[in-house]
């Protein structure tokens, strides 16, 4: 008898990739927002 079981690592890797993508997207948007704020503050001086 052979037990067929799915490897649990695939779902874990998929979640890791999604977390990394969310972190990257969040950090990029945060940096862009900071950049825009700095530019606006410098133009008003």
Please describe what this structure looks like.
The protein is an all-alpha fold. The chain is built from 1 helix and no strands. It has one helix at 9-44. The longest helix is centred in the middle third of the chain and has 36 residues, at 9-44. The radius of gyration is 21 Å and the shape is rod-shaped. The chain crosses the membrane at residues 21-42. Keywords: Membrane, Transmembrane, Transmembrane helix.
- State which percent range the strand residues make up: under 5%
Low-confidence stretches: none
Fraction of helical residues = over 70%
SS content category: mainly alpha
Q: State the end-to-end distance.
A: 77 Å
Specify the number of helices: 1
Q: What general outline do the C-alpha atoms trace? A: rod-shaped
Topology of this structure?
Blueprint: H1 9-44
Quickly describe the structure:
By secondary structure, the protein is mainly α.
Q: What are its keywords?
A:
single chain, 45 residues, mainly alpha, transmembrane helix, membrane, transmembrane
